[in-house]
Amino acid sequence: MAPRKIIIDTDPGQDDAFAILFALGSPAELEVVGITTVGGNVPLALTAENALKVIELAGRADIPVYAGCPGPMVKKLKTAEYVHGPTGMDGADLPRPTTPLQDEHAVNYLVRAIMDAPEGELTVCTLGPMTNLAMAMVMEPRIIPRLREVVLMGGGFFQGGNATPAAEFNIFVDPHAAHVVFESGVPVTMCPIDCTYTAEMTVEWLDRLRATGKRAAIEAANMADFYRQYGSHKFATSARPIHDACVTGYLLAPELYEQRLCNVTIDIVSPETIGMTLVDWWHVTGKRKNCTVLRRIDPDPFFALMLERIGALA
Ligand code: RIB
Ligand code: CA
């Protein structure tokens, strides 16, 4: 079978970097046709530069990288240097990229790429606030029926939130964008923190990643060592959820995930719960089931696959 064509929309972010490297280490199954960047974990200038660093680390400077929206549709940007460090990808010792960004704005690229591709060919994977994709849908609604699927890291339900008690970071930063995408009618698969919290990256696994001796794997392990410094007040062990990589894992091995088709709505009005993903897991509302919700992952085969694929990079 031909590899599945995907566009990765991202705010690197160490866990975003893992998701991208995981995908680039899986060329038989996934073809990353483009990367779009958004303000999120850190401001856009840094997320764009970090995306270029990651493709160069993977030896894939051929992949076009586009800068998109610097901030959310309505709210003011909230960043997460407290998790990712001032550069957004602290821990890795990577040179300033020599690969240029594309001149085209990411939103214009999304519209053009989706309109030019055969209907149902492209999947968009969002790993940060969904601003770029939402803006593309508002600008050109005809892209909506042309998309195969949107697979996102974001949201939370039984787990609550990580940015506020009710909201996960990606959705909290731009709840209005998430609302546009979830209500658009496009097939949505959501990987919330309920799922990513079951994908706990351990020190032992990072040692095995480093032991591959490959530069991409070593730098990934180095950035993970910074990333896992945050959260000792939240997690009982030194393991940390590798959130965004769970999106790539789903594309490669969906059978590893407990999943259910549900109705999901986004709170965009309540001051205390804005950004909450209201998941009708028991289908009590009778509302349209607009989202496949991933609840749990089988961690051992997931991490074995990610080790194999990132370890396959140079
Ligand atoms: O809540 C986790 C998400 O927020 C991840 O995508 C992480 O990179 C941050 O963007
Ligand atoms: Ca992210």
UniProtKB/TrEMBL annotation:
Transmembrane segments: none annotated. PANTHER family: INOSINE-URIDINE PREFERRING NUCLEOSIDE HYDROLASE, URIDINE NUCLEOSIDASE. InterPro entries: Inosine/uridine_hydrolase_dom, IUNH, Ribo_hydro-like. This is Purine nucleosidase. Keywords: Glycosidase, Hydrolase. Residues 6-303 form the Inosine/uridine-preferring nucleoside hydrolase domain. GO terms for molecular function: purine nucleosidase activity. The keyword 4Fe-4S does not apply. Pfam families: IU_nuc_hydro (PF01156). Its EC number is 3.2.2.1.
